[in-house]
Amino acid sequence: MPNTMSLRASTRRIHCSKLLHPTTYLHTRQTPKVPVGWRQCRAVASTASAERVLFPGALNSKFTNEMAFIRPSTHKAIPTYRVMDQYGQVINKEVGVDTEDEEALTLYRNMVCLSIMDLLMFEAQRQGRLSFYMMSAGEEGIAVGTASALDPSDVIFCQYRETGVFLQRGFTLDQFMNQLFANKEDLGKGRNMPVHYGSKELNIHTVSSPLATQIPHAAGAAYALKLQNQQQSDKPPRVAVCFFGEGAASEGDFHAALNIAATRQVPSIFICRNNGYAISTPTSDQYRGDGIAARGAGYGIDTLRVDGNDIFAVRRAVKEARRIALENGGKPVLIEMMAYRVGHHSTSDDSFAYRQKVEVEDWKRRDNPITRLRKWLEGRGVWDEDKERELRSSLRKKVLAAFDKAEKMKKPPIASAFEGVYEEITEEQKQHIEELRDILQRYPKEYDIDQHEGGIESLSQLLEKK
Amino acid sequence: MPPSLSPVRTLSRCLLRPQSPIHPRCQWHPSSIRQASAAAGARLNGTVEFDSTPILQHTSRAALANPELPPDVRNGQTKRINLYTAVNEALRHALQTDERVLVFGEDIQFGGVFRCTMNLAGDFGTDRVFNTPLSEQGLVGFAIGAASEGMKPVAEIQFADYVYPAFDQLVNEAAKRRYMSGSTGYNCGGLVVRMPCGVVGHGALYHSQSPEALFTHIPGLHVVIPRSPLQAKGLLLSAIQSNDPVVFMEPKVLYRAAVEQVPVDAYHLPLDKAEVLKSGKDLTVVSYGTPLYTCAAAISAAEKDFGCSVELIDLRTIYPWDRKTVVDSVKKTGRAMVVHESMMNAGVGAEVAATIQEQAFLRLEAPVKRVTGWATHTGLSFEKFIIPDVTRVYDAIRKTIEY
Ligand SMILES: Cc1ncc(C[n+]2csc(CCOP(=O)(O)OP(=O)(O)O)c2C)c(N)n1
Ligand SMILES: [Mg+2]
C-alpha cells in the first residue's frame, strides 16, 4: 500500500513543522488570555533532577515515589451550601439572605403559583383533558430562584422540569395554557408535547425531549455570547445558563459540553437539578462518584453544591456563579442543586412502582422549598394564614380562567404541520400538501378539520404562497 | 353530572377531593386516545377494531394452525396475551434457557416504562437484568462489547426516538464488526437492541418516530418489526439466537392494544421471510408493524366497495428483506402499494418500489404507490393528518386499481 505510506509520512512532516513553529507563538497577540502554563506545555523538562516535568497533559504534577491511588470513596462528600435551615432560620445573620422582603414575597407567590398550576394540570391530565404533564414539586426553588438571580437578557436552556424559570421570567398563565393545549395561540404552533415551552422574547430556548442535547448547545451559545460581549462592549455582558437532571448528566453530551465549555472558556452556568431519580433509576444506578459536582473539577470547572430547598442559597450561588462566569471574558461554572423529586416523573408514571410511598411522605414532611420560604416570611412578619388562603384562592381562579380559555380555543392551522421544516416549503412537500388536501376534500366526514384554525383553507393558502 | 358544568368548577372540585388514584402502572394509554381522534361521522377512519381484526389470532386454533410453528408447539397450549407480555415471555424464556443472555437498559429493572421487563430482575437477578446509566451510546457500546465476548445482550432503548446517541455504535461498530474483524472471528452476534417505535396519538416529535429506514441502509444489521404478540415472541427469540446483530423495533401502540392467542411454549419465527397475511388477485399491499391494521381495515372496505381482491404482505424483517415473496406477489397481481408510518423520502417504500420496478416491471399495470408519513415531523396536533389512516390507504387502493 504505497499510497497510504506516503500519506502517513507527509502527515508526520506537518506535525514536525508545527512543533518547530507553534502557531501560538506566532500569533500571541491575537490569542490573548491563554494562561501562561498552557503555552509552555510543549516545553520539555530542563534537568533530570527537576521536581516536576512539564508533561503536556498534566502541568505542575510533582514526581512522587509513593504509589497512592486516588480513592474517591475515602474522600469527604462535597458540602452542600445553604443560607437558611429547614425552619426558615438564617444561619449567618451577618451575610443575610441578600433579598428584600418585597422580592421574597414575589418569589414566594411564583412558587405557589407553580405548585397550584401543577396540581390542577396533573388532575386535568387524569381527567383526560390534557395528554401529558410534568410537575416541579420539590424543585420550585431551583427554577424560580435561579431565574430571579440572572439578568433577563441571559440566555437559558431548559430540560423540562423548569416551568418555574418561565414563570419567573414572565411567561403568562395564558401562554402556559396555550402550550399545554397546543392551541392556535401556542408559541410552539401546537407541534410539541405539553411542557415543552419556549420563548425568544424571554430568551429561553424551546424545550426538546431528547435528554442532554441542550447542554452542548448552551456551551456554544455561551461562546457566541462571549464573542458578542467582546464585540459589543457598550451592552451589558450576558451568560448562557443550562439546566439538566442528574440522569441526563450520564449522556455523552453532558461530558462533551463541559469539556468544550472549559477549553473555550465560555461564560456559562451549568445547573444540575439532582432530584435523586431519573424516572425510576435511583442515583445509585446512575453514578458512583460524589454526585455531579464531583465531575466539575475533572473538567477544570469551578463548582458548587447547593441546597435546592433553600431559595436564598440558590440565588446567592447563581449570582456569584454569574460573576465568576463573566470574569476575564468568561469561564464555565457548574452548580449542583440538591433536591428530591416529590412528584411522579410525569403523568405517565406511577412512582410507587419503584419507591416507597413513605419515602415520599417523609421528604414532603422534612423539607420543601415553598414551606421553607414561607417560614422565613412568617418569621419576618410579612406573611400569615389569611394571606396564604387569599393567595391560593386567587391563583387558583387565575389558573382556571386561563385553562378554560385555552381549552376552548381552536387548534393551529393544519398548514403548521408542514411549515417550519425548512424556511420555505419544498416542492416535495407541496405535492404532499396537495395530496392531503385532496383527501380532506373528498372524504370530509372522515376528518375533524374544523377544530383547526382556517380549516382546509390554510393548506390552500400555503400552496398559493410564493 | 350535567354536561354543562364548567371546566373551571369541575377542576376546582378535584382539588378539594383527595387525589384520585393513579392509573394502573403504565406509561401510555394510547389505544383509547387514538380511537377518539376519528371524526364523529367517519366511516373509514377509526375502524381498526383490535377485538376482531384479521391481523390478530383470536382463537387458539387459528394461532396453532400457523405452519411456521414447530409440530410440538402446534400440539401445545395458547394463552391470550398482549404484545408487551409476549416480549416479556420471550425474554424470560431466553434468560431461563441460556445463561449468556443479559437484559438491560434505562429503567428496565422495575419493569420498564412499557412493562416489557416486568419481574425479570427479581427472577433472574440484577447481574443479568439491570438498569444502566442514562446513556444510549454507552449502553449499546456496552452491549457490543459483551456480545463480542460471547454473551447475548438484549439492550433496550427507551424510545426509538432516543437511539441516535447510539447510532455510531450501531452503524460503525455493530454492523461492521464481523466484516472488519476479518479472519479473527470477532463478531457481535447475539446482540439485540430493542426499542419501542411509532405513533400513539400524542407522542409529538420525540415519542413517535419509526427510524427503521436509517438502519435498513446499513448492511450488517437485521431490522425486525413484529406486528403482533405471536410474532413478537417468535421473532424476538430468533433475534436473540441470531449470530448477527438485530435492531428490534416494537410498535408501542400495540403493546396493550394488540392481544391475541400465543403459544405458551417457546418457538422461533424466521428472520428472512415476509408473510402473506391475505391472498388476493388485483393488488399487493406491502407493509409492516402498526399500519398492517390500517391496511386490513382499508382492504376490507375497498374489497366491499370496489369488488377488488387485495393481497396483504407483512415484511416482518425490513432488512435484509424477503424480496422474492414480494416480487412473486406483484408478478401475480400486477399492482403494488407500500404503506408505512415514517416519511416517504428515502424510506422503506422507496426501496420496495424500486425493487418491484426492477424485477416486475413488465407485469406492472400501475405505478407503485407509497402511502406513508409526509415529508415533515410529527407535530402533536397534526399526527392524524400525517400518518397514513384507513381513508388514505382505501383511496390509494382505489386509485391504483383504477389506474
Ligand atoms: C436521549 C434520551 N433518552 C431517554 C429519554 C427518556 N427519558 C425522559 S426523562 C428521563 C429521565 C431523566 O432524568 P433526569 O435527567 O434526572 O431528570 P428529572 O426527570 O429527574 O428531572 C428519561 C430516561 C429521553 N427523553 N432522552
Ligand atoms: Mg433526576
Automatic annotation (TrEMBL), chain A:
SUPFAM superfamilies: Thiamin diphosphate-binding fold (THDP-binding). Residues 108-414 form the Dehydrogenase E1 component domain. GO terms for biological process: branched-chain amino acid catabolic process. GO terms for cellular component: mitochondrial matrix. It is found in: Mitochondrion matrix. It comes from the Eukaryota. Its cofactor is thiamine diphosphate. It is an enzyme of class 1 (oxidoreductase). Pfam families: E1_dh. The keyword Flavoprotein does not apply. It catalyses: N(6)-[(R)-lipoyl]-L-lysyl-[protein] + 3-methyl-2-oxobutanoate + H(+) = N(6)-[(R)-S(8)-2-methylpropanoyldihydrolipoyl]-L-lysyl-[protein] + CO2. Keywords: Metal-binding, Mitochondrion, Oxidoreductase, Potassium, Thiamine pyrophosphate, Transit peptide. Its EC number is 1.2.4.4. InterPro entries: Alpha-ketoacid_DH_E1_comp, DH_E1, THDP-binding. One of its GO terms (molecular function) is branched-chain 2-oxo acid dehydrogenase activity. CDD domains: TPP_E1_PDC_ADC_BCADC. The branched-chain alpha-keto dehydrogenase complex catalyzes the overall conversion of alpha-keto acids to acyl-CoA and CO(2). It contains multiple copies of three enzymatic components: branched-chain alpha-keto acid decarboxylase (E1), lipoamide acyltransferase (E2) and lipoamide dehydrogenase (E3). Belongs to the BCKDHA family. This is 2-oxoisovalerate dehydrogenase subunit alpha. It comes from Westerdykella ornata.
TrEMBL record, chain B:
GO terms for molecular function: branched-chain 2-oxo acid dehydrogenase activity. Keywords: Oxidoreductase. Residues 81-257 form the Transketolase-like pyrimidine-binding domain. It holds the Pfam family Transket_pyr. Its EC number is 1.2.4.4. It comes from Westerdykella ornata. PANTHER family: 2-OXOISOVALERATE DEHYDROGENASE SUBUNIT BETA, MITOCHONDRIAL, 2-OXOISOVALERATE DEHYDROGENASE SUBUNIT BETA-RELATED. The keyword Transport does not apply. It catalyses: N(6)-[(R)-lipoyl]-L-lysyl-[protein] + 3-methyl-2-oxobutanoate + H(+) = N(6)-[(R)-S(8)-2-methylpropanoyldihydrolipoyl]-L-lysyl-[protein] + CO2. Its cofactor is thiamine diphosphate. This is 3-methyl-2-oxobutanoate dehydrogenase (2-methylpropanoyl-transferring). GO terms for biological process: branched-chain amino acid catabolic process; generation of precursor metabolites and energy; response to nutrient. It is an enzyme of class 1 (oxidoreductase).
